[in-house]
Design a protein that fits this description.
alpha+beta; Lipocalin; eight-stranded antiparallel barrel; 20 helices; 13% strand
């Protein structure tokens, strides 16, 4: 109903304006209107650089304003041309002809002006409907329903009225908007109404490096922001949030987002599979699976002793937080806490405890101090005195030896204690490098980045063979294999 009322008002308004201004001054603006609609989008890149100069740095304005500027610029040119032509014709009939021809011209000009005004009213009705159709498509996709307020609420209502009036198909025939806009709107609406897709979105191969940026990490750790998304707050509130503005004002992020294949992204969000990156199975985030790694070592080392098994389990407790991030630009990063110092601190005790010799106490022998011996005169029997010989002195009693009890063996640190210390360490890039290969076999060339991290045999760089089997990633270096799961 609102659409029909608006259309009638536009017909009446432009009919009256056409009668007052005449046909000449209505024809040229009408031509400018039609030409501006079809040239607004193709010529918008020419004026895109002007938007930040007026203080509008939000990328949304950089998308919406350039077509509007081109449209009004073309319209103003044709309005000026129409005014000049009307002025020239008026001067001719005023000074070069008689009054009969002048009055006939003025009467014809006004009556044709009404007709041109009605045509202009129809054109502007389609133009307004086109604005509602284009902008309303996005706002209805991300509508918060009853929570929506302000201009977005009325725009959604107008979009619904446009569909119910039957004018939607007519307006759509004049739509010059590229498909990229509608794909982006579908993606935003899909994510806005399905919170579970956020984790899938962060795992999209081109977004793996974006998810590592501090701006997105802040959003992931902001409880208030997450609650706002969970309750489907109005999209205007989400856009105006400082953390959203921090992303929108970062030109590097915006440029990377603009290069995204939206059709592939939409298919990935719907199915979880990217047709574009289907052959690069290594892309994604991989986390160490300690149990699969342990099982792999047991298969490879048939004579694995109990002591070695215990030690291997403890080693995996240290490194189970390692993650491998593989991006489409052939970069690879190994991230996690730098636990090498903790391993050096505890590994000796763990190894010794596994072998039954951890901090084995040595009994200490403590001798008591001998009691002072009082000198005594030797006792001589009468028989000995007869022969002039003295009896031998009695040897002193040796002091008792006290053996102090051995202190109990110190137990090794528990896994909980180790995990608590590891949790205090920051997540850093332990190693990074490049990858090459395809399908299920790849080769990773990596260099150590963190101060304490080392590859096998204490090396700072290594060539790692990567194989994908049964959905798992097997990394082999120096006959040691780590098994990782994608998450």
């Amino acid at each position: 109903m609102i659409i029909w009322i608006m259309a009638l008002l536009l017909f009446a308004l432009f009919g009256a304006v056409g009668y007052a201004k005449g046909a000449v001054r209505m024809i040229f603006p009408l031509m400018g209107l039609m030409l501006g609609v079809f040239l607004a989008v193709p010529l918008s890149p020419l004026v895109k650089s002007l938007v930040p100069l007026v203080g509008l740095k939000n990328p949304i304005w950089s998308i919406l304003l350039p077509p509007v500027i081109v449209f009004f610029f073309i319209g103003m040119i044709f309005i000026i041309v129409g005014f000049i032509v009307h002025w020239k014709v008026s001067l001719y009939y005023k000074y070069q002809t008689d009054d009969y021809h002048r009055l006939s011209w003025e009467r014809l000009n006004k009556r044709l002006g009404v007709s041109m005004g009605l045509v202009a009213g129809a054109a502007y009705a389609i133009l307004v409907g086109l604005v509602i159709y284009i902008l309303g498509y996005l706002t209805t996709q991300v509508s918060a329903g009853e929570n929506e307020t302000g201009l977005v609420k009325y725009l959604n209502q107008a979009r619904a009225d446009l569909r119910s009036s039957g004018l939607e198909k007519t307006v759509a025939a004049f739509d010059p908007t590229p498909d990229k806009y509608y794909l982006a709107s579908d993606i935003m609406g899909l994510i806005y109404h399905n919170r579970l897709l956020e984790s899938r979105l962060s795992a999209y191969p081109p977004f793996l490096s974006l998810a590592e940026r501090q701006e997105f990490q802040d959003i992931a750790n902001d409880t208030e922001y997450q609650n706002m998304l969970a309750t489907q707050a109005p999209v205007s509130q989400v856009i105006n949030h400082p953390k959203t503005q921090a992303i929108l004002s970062n030109q590097e992020i915006i440029q990377q987002l603009q290069q995204t294949d939206l059709k592939d992204l939409l298919e990935y969000l719907k199915t979880g599979e990217s047709p574009k990156f289907a052959d690069m199975k290594i892309l994604g985030r991989w986390q160490l699976d300690p149990y699969a790694t342990l099982l792999q070592e047991k298969k490879k080392r048939s004579r694995l002793t109990t002591v070695e098994m215990k030690l291997l389990k403890q080693q995996l407790e240290f490194v189970k937080g390692y993650t491998l991030v593989v991006t489409p630009d052939n970069n690879v990063k190994l991230k996690g806490p730098d636990v090498m110092a903790l391993m050096q601190k505890y590994l000796g005790d763990l190894k010794g405890f596994a072998e039954g010799t951890a901090r084995k106490p040595v009994p200490t022998v403590r001798a008591t101090a001998p009691a002072p011996v009082q000198p005594t005169s030797p006792s001589v029997s009468p028989q000995m005195q007869r022969y002039g010989r003295a009896a031998p002195a009695r040897a002193p009693t040796p002091p008792p030896v006290v053996v102090s009890p051995a202190a109990p063996a110190a137990a090794p640190p528990t896994p909980a204690a180790i995990a608590a210390e590891i949790a205090k360490l920051p997540i850093v890039v332990l190693a990074q490098g490049n990858w090459k290969g395809e399908e299920d076999k790849y080769e990773l060339t990596m260099q150590s980045q963190a101060g304490g991290f080392q590859f096998g045999n204490g090396k700072k760089s290594a060539a790692v063979e990567a194989t994908i089997r049964d959905g798992r990633l097997y990394l082999t270096e120096e006959n040691e294999t780590m098994v990782m799961e994608k998450f």
